[in-house]
């Protein structure tokens, strides 16, 4: 297996890992959204810790994808490739903040349960702030995620590393994700516009694992650095 084929396979696996980790973390962290979370979180400590581990896996996958793709993408536009890496690192940092906020909520829940005569208002205020940090970080994360996706699919479209119908689909999905980010600032539950990009990433991952990159695009002359 040549290095480019290996890169395509690894990136495909990383995309699947990121999607699976994001989904599973939500499943295991369900107790943190319970109305009685001050007691429910510590009662489900193992589930919370597993959920956080999935979020750590998500963070690692998100950051690893642009690092793996950079040597290929920079041959087509190094400036945009660097912007892509930066956007994904910012996205990964946001995922890390999400994980830390859940660990802090677990600590708060432990203290509440162990307190002899807990002052409910203090714990509720602290818990509300941690939940707000999690929710707003999740909303703001849409922007580096969308920017990274726009750059990624634009470079894939220009380079023809994958079929243009697939990269074009990604560009549309990334554009809808920007709208999702703006909409979620007013309605955090609005996630439906994210579905096209999520489905696209599933198809992209499968394509990269099974087909890899277009060989003719890999041997074609690269664009000059900074060229649009």
Describe what is shown at a glance.
By secondary structure, this protein is mainly alpha-helical.
Description:
Helices cover 81% and strands 0% of the residues. The chain is mainly alpha-helical. It has one domain (3-219).
So what's the overall shape?
elongated
Low-pLDDT residue intervals, each spanning 5 or more residues: 221-228
Rg (CA only): 20 Å
Secondary-structure element pattern, one letter each: HHHHHHHH
What is the total domain count?
Answer: 1
Number of helices: 8
Report the structural category.
Answer: mainly alpha
Largest sheet: none
Please estimate the helix content. over 70%
Terminal Cα separation, in Å? 32 Å
Number of strands: 0
Q: Strand content of the residues, in percent?
A: under 5%
Oligomerization state of this entry?
single chain
The average pLDDT is 88
Task: Present the secondary structure layout.
Blueprint: H1 3-28, H2 37-43, H3 45-114, H4 120-140, H5 142-159, H6 164-184, H7 195-210, H8 215-219
Helix pairs in contact: 1-3, 1-7, 2-3, 3-4, 3-5, 5-6, 6-7
């Amino acid at each position: 297996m040549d290095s480019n084929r290996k890169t395509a396979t690894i990136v495909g696996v990383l995309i699947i890992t990121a999607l699976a980790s994001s989904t599973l973390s939500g499943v295991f962290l369900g107790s943190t959204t319970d109305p009685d979370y001050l007691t429910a979180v510590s009662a489900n400590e193992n589930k919370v810790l597993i959920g956080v581990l999935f979020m750590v896996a998500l963070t690692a996958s998100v950051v690893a994808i642009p690092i793996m793709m950079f040597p290929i993408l920079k041959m087509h536009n190094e400036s945009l490739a660097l912007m892509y890496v930066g956007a994904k690192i910012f996205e990964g940092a946001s995922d890390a903040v999400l994980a830390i906020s859940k660990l802090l909520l677990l600590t708060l829940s432990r203290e509440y349960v162990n307190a002899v005569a807990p002052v409910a208002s203090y714990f509720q205020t602290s818990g509300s702030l941690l939940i707000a940090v999690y929710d707003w970080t999740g909303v703001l994360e849409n922007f580096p995620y969308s920017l990274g996706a726009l750059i990624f699919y634009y470079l894939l479209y220009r380079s023809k590393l994958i079929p243009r119908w697939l990269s074009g689909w990604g560009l549309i999905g990334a554009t809808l994700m920007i709208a999702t980010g703006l909409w979620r600032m007013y309605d955090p539950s609005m996630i439906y516009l994210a579905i096209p990009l999520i489905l696209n990433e599933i198809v992209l991952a499968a394509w990269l694992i099974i087909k890899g990159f277009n060989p003719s695009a890999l041997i074609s002359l690269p664009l000059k650095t900074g060229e649009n």
